[in-house]
Amino acid sequence: MGKARGARREREAADAVSEQVDGGLAQLIPDRERARAWTLLIDGAPQSHVDLDDPAYLSFEYQRRLGHVVDLAAPPGKPLHAVHLGGGAFTLARYVAATRPRSTQQVVERDAALVQLVRRELPLETGARIRVRSADAREGLAKVPEGWADLVVADVFSGARTPAHLTSTEFLDEVRRVLRPGGILAANLADGPPLAHLRGQIATAAARFGELALIADPAVLRGKRFGNAVLVASDLPLPIAELTRRAASDPHPGRVEHGRALTDFTGGAPPVTDVGAVASPAPPPSVFR
């Protein structure tokens, strides 16, 4: 059995694509269970999974949860105007294009070398209405017209941490400017015990949006382990019941918190502003083992 595993690792290493990009060492590792699927790692940290034959397939737990938000952002099949802050391998942009044809999307990814690598090795579908801009997320967002977006997906990590300037009320002011009335923000957050970053991000979103929901593994919410949580925000009521049903039926079931329970979860944490903003905490080394 050990020899078989070793041979498999050798084949994967031979097929993998490795290249230095602005953010570190990028690796595209083939998925042995799916013919044209790949996982993108940056300095060993998994960033994205893409199946070129089935872009509607979402492998990562947090990306499935973002996919639920995409599915419920509008009636099935209706095209969206979507902005993706953080590109990775363009997994969510591909998902929107596959599930909502004729959508118009903008991806903002600071790492120009990574964009070139992904475009070359994992090309977008011909005709996909996806524009990719190499820029800082906040600077790129400033170039999006007011009220243009139905959906903003924030999934920006630098060295496995969300940069400080993307955690503040001032950043959310720019998100609100870009969103149409009733538009939705879906943000991928990462934190572990004592969950100070997550509590602060919920309080920050509550200072700018009237309706919030949080989707996460119950163990993460209890502060038992480091992990991802998807924060959903809008000015209109969110589809809580359907989000709850979908999260609960995932391979790794998630829990949805909202309303008073989510307010209580913040523990009185104050909103984050640019002056006091800090990057999200680094995950412990064991997370990627």
Short précis:
With 289 residues, the chain is of the alpha/beta class.
Description:
By secondary structure, the chain is α/β, with parallel strands linked by helices. It is built from ten helices and twelve strands. The protein has helices at residues 2-15, 61-72, 91-99, 112-121, 137-142, 169-178, 196-206, 218-221, 240-248, 259-265, and strands at 17-21, 24-30, 37-42, 45-51, 81-85, 104-108, 130-133, 149-154, 179-191, 211-216, 227-234, 255-258. The strands form two sheets. It has an eight-stranded mixed β-sheet with strand order 7-6-5-8-9-11-10-12, sandwiched between helices. It has a four-stranded antiparallel β-sheet with strand order 1-2-3-4. α2 packs parallel to α3 (91-99) and α2 (61-72) packs antiparallel against α9. The longest helix is centred in the N-terminal third of the chain and has 14 residues, at 2-15. The two termini are 20 Å apart. The relative contact order is 0.12. The model is unreliable at 1-13 (pLDDT under 50).
Question: How helical, in percent, are the residues?
Answer: 25-40%
Weakly predicted, low-confidence segments: 1-13
Strand content: 25-35%
The main β sheet shows up as:
8 strands, mixed
Give me the side-by-side strand order of the main sheet: 7-6-5-8-9-11-10-12
